[in-house]
Amino acid sequence: DAMVIQNPRYQVTQFGKPVTLSCSQTLNHNVMYWYQQKSSQAPKLLFHYYDKDFNNEADTPDNFQSRRPNTSFCFLDIRSPGLGDAAMYLCATSSQLGTMGASTYGYTFGSGTRLTVV
Amino acid sequence: LAKTTQPISMDSYEGQEVNITCSHNNIATNDYITWYQQFPSQGPRFIIQGYKTKVTNEVASLFIPADRKSSTLSLPRVSLSDTAVYYCLVGTFHGGATNKLIFGTGTLLAVQP
Fold it and tell me: Which of residues 75 through 104 in chain A touch B, CB cutoff 8 A?
């Protein structure tokens, strides 16, 4: 089945040690998103790729970076994780057309990576 | 992007119909209304989307009045497995780099036996 896969499911990293989370998709969707979700909060959009174009949210800290080497893969890099970065990180994809009025509601989320910072 | 307001939490019992209402007073002409469901430690899952009137699928119905300033997600005969957080989102889903989902607070639905 076509899907969005996040690895690893659980990640423990040390304070200040760079960590990379990965996301892959078999849907051939052109847009990929990274969300951060802290306990009992709603997912918060960090950034997204529209094809190869990177779009950062204004309040996303510089500590968070992303790479998208091809359509199928997208990575979230946290350069120096702090205790406050402990959260569930969700990857999502969607297929968006270039024409006005085309509606696509099929955001597909992965199961997430739960990051613990020690 | 239109802001949404939902109840923080709701309680229900198995077999009952549950209606969760979402307010979106500043919804734009091109905006669609979409609902997602999220279980603990999982990503959100698409439930239903609509633009106006009523939409029904195999899991839920979505009622949207003529002014579109609110919407109601209806879950028929809930079971314990419907316990989850339900998010109402409003946005324009057409091509462009600005197309993105911004989540509101969501409604935690707790279904009791």
Answer: 88, 90-92, 94, 96-104
> Is residue B103 within 8 Å of residue A46, measured between CB atoms?
no
pLDDT band at A106 (very low <50, low <70, confident <90, very high): low
**pLDDT tens string A67-102:** 999 999 999 999 999 999 999 999 999 876 644 444
Instruction: Tell me the three state secondary structure of residue B1.
Output: coil
B95, B100, B104: residue with CB nearest A102: B95
Residue of B nearest to A104 (CA): B93
- Spatial CB neighbours of B45, under 8 Å, sequence gap ≥ 6: A109, B36, B37, B38, B39
Select from B6, B39, B22, B33 the least CA-distant residue to B106: B6
- Please give the helix or strand (H or E) that residue B84 lies within, else none: strand B84-91
Give A65-86 as a 3 state SS string: EEECCCCCEEEEEECCCCHHHC
Residues in A 21-40 with any Cβ partner in B closer than 8 A = 31, 33, 35
Report the first-to-last Cα separation within chain A, whole angstroms: 36
